[in-house]
Structure formats: structure tokens, C-alpha cells
Amino acid sequence: MTAPSSDPCLFCRIIRGEIPAGRLGESADSVAIADIAPQAPHHVLLIPKRHSPHIGEFMKGPRAAEEMKDLLDLGQGIVAKKNLEEKGYRLVVNTGEEGGQTVPHLHIHLLAGREMGWPPG
Ligand code: 5GP
Ligand code: ZN
């Protein structure tokens, strides 16, 4: 269930198809889109259809475990399709102001195709 249509949430609007995005996959509870400003050769956003501002709120949902599995499975499908397993990839959840989150609707970044630095900036 997405937020009501009056909700200004960018990702809810993308999920509803009100804003175009490069859709890379969809499952019962999740969508995958190409990031508009890719930070790596592959930069996919894995987004739950249910609106939550961040992971802490999301995990309070009664179906959170099932929805999180659905989200990660969608990501694994993309990893397999793009053949990313061998060289590796990174999953990132920026959370809150200091965590660098800019869109307050939970999402997982899937980044791949270049060597990643550590620690992250
Ligand atoms: P955050 O900063 O919240 O971790 O990640 C938000 C991501 O959403 C950023 O990587 C940003 O480039 C991406 N983004 C912002 N607006 C849009 C948009 O309109 N379409 C798509 N596909 N990605 C977006
Ligand atoms: Zn939303």
C-alpha cells in the first residue's frame, strides 16, 4: 500500500507511475528503479511499495519481515540478471540527516561496477 495520492513523497509517486523512472523490476511488495544520478556503473534503488520514512518505522509494520525478504529477493534477481555476484556489489541504506538520506521513503541502494572505498564518506 502506497501513501495517498495527495502525499508529496517522490518514491510513492514513482511507484504509482505519476513520475517516470527507469523500472528495472517489480515484485508484490517492491519496485526497483535506476537511480537518476548514478554513483557507480550500476546504481539501482530497491524500494518497498509501503511508505515508511526510514527503516526503523518500516520494521514496525506487521508484514515487515516478509516485505524485507521481498525487497532483498528483488535485489538478488537484479544481481543475478546483471551478473554482479562474482565481482561484488554494495547494498546501502542511508538513514536520517547524518546518514545522508535525502528521500524519506525507505530504499536500498544497490551499487556495483567499480571498486568501492571504505570507510564510506
Ligand atoms: P538517499 O540520498 O535518500 O539515500 O537516496 C535517494 C536517491 O534517490 C539518490 O541517489 C538520488 O539520486 C535518487 N533520486 C532522487 N530523485 C530521483 C528521481 O526523481 N528519480 C530517480 N530514479 N532517482 C531519484
Ligand atoms: Zn513514500
What can you tell me about this protein's structure?
By secondary structure, the protein is α+β, with helices and mostly antiparallel strands. The chain has one domain: HIT-like (HIT family, subunit A, 2-Layer Sandwich). It is 23% helix and 21% strand. It is built from 3 helices and 5 strands, in the order αβββααββ. The chain has a 5-stranded antiparallel sheet, covered by helices on one side. The model has no long low-confidence stretch (mean pLDDT 95). The structure holds guanosine-5'-monophosphate (5GP) and zinc ion. Guanosine-5'-monophosphate (5GP) binds next to β2.
Key terms for this structure?
121 residues, alpha+beta, HIT family, subunit A, five-stranded antiparallel β-sheet, 3 helices, binds guanosine-5'-monophosphate, binds zinc ion
